[in-house]
């Protein structure tokens, strides 16, 4: 069964279907080609290889390239959870990778409604898009309250905090807490007091947060990871990497995640460092 569903560039506001399946050598060549050509390089793998490895089930590392102000990233994670519940026999590890949709937003944020009207070209278009996304979110059990979000934050600090959470073992949980805080509780994520409240259940004191804010801990890693994934061709979020062999773009339906995870589990894994 062919996994390549679409060829072309991925637009920020769309949830298109793009799955790229590659062998070890092809994956490296793919990255080189992407860098040189600036367009998607679609490659496939011999189906006979799938049959050879079908009996072996490997753990699957899922890297989610995401931004915490992206509603499709929130929806996609919920759909991924539904998919993983259908295949409990597959061992998975989820790692969040940084991608700033709006890196030029100042540290104190910007007024949300005017900013998003500018992003979408008009207030009418903004409202239409958010109405559609709200409906999609409802089908996934998510209460997305776009009209109550007052400010758009610069998410670099949030990505640093996610990186820190990854060092301490609660990254995926914190990501979902941030999504809920922004889209449902409509917390102002530009305010340290609000962030401190969110972090309190994870044994962060306000002094811990202040110390982190005063440092540059994790900053170089976050910048490096963003450069790495942009070099790999990521231009929109969410984008999912399964053992660095399968790439899936967009908040896909659960069956697409099931298919991608299952196939990744049956493949020979890339050597460490690739």
Automatic annotation (TrEMBL):
Enumerate the Gene3D superfamilies for this protein: Glutaredoxin (3.40.30.10)
One Pfam short name:
DSBA
Domain of life per record: Bacteria
A molecular function (GO) held by this record is:
oxidoreductase activity
UniProt domain DSBA-like thioredoxin: residue ranges: 62-261
Q: What is this protein called?
A: DsbA oxidoreductase
Tell me the organism. Fibrisoma limi BUZ 3
Q: Which taxonomic lineage does the organism of this UniProt entry have?
A: Bacteria, Pseudomonadati, Bacteroidota, Cytophagia, Cytophagales
């Amino acid at each position: 069964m062919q996994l390549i569903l679409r060829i072309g560039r991925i637009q920020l506001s769309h949830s298109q279907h793009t799955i790229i399946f590659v062998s070890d050598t092809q994956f490296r060549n793919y990255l080189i080609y992407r860098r040189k050509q600036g367009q998607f390089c679609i490659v496939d793998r011999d189906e006979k290889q799938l049959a050879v490895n079908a009996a072996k089930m490997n753990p699957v590392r899922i890297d989610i390239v995401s931004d915490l102000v992206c509603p499709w990233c929130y929806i996609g994670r919920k759909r991924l959870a539904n998919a993983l519940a259908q295949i409990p026999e597959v061992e998975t590890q989820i790692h969040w990778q940084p991608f700033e949709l709006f890196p030029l937003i100042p540290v104190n944020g910007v007024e949300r409604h005017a900013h998003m009207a500018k992003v979408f070209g008009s207030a009418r278009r903004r409202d239409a898009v958010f109405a559609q996304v709200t409906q999609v979110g409802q089908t996934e059990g998510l209460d997305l309250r776009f009209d109550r979000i007052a400010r758009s934050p610069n998410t670099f600090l949030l990505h640093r905090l996610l990186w820190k959470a990854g060092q301490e073992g609660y990254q995926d949980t914190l990501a979902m807490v941030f999504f809920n805080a922004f889209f449902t509780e409509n917390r102002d994520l530009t305010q340290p007091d609000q962030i401190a409240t969110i972090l309190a259940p994870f044994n962060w004191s306000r002094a811990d947060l202040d110390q982190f804010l005063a440092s540059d801990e994790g900053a170089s890693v976050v910048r490096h990871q963003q450069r790495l994934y942009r070099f790999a061709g990521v231009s929109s979020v969410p984008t999912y990497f399964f053992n660095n062999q399968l790439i899936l773009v967009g908040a896909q339906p659960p069956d697409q995640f099931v298919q991608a995870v299952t196939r990744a589990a049956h493949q020979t894994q890339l050597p460490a460092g690739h």
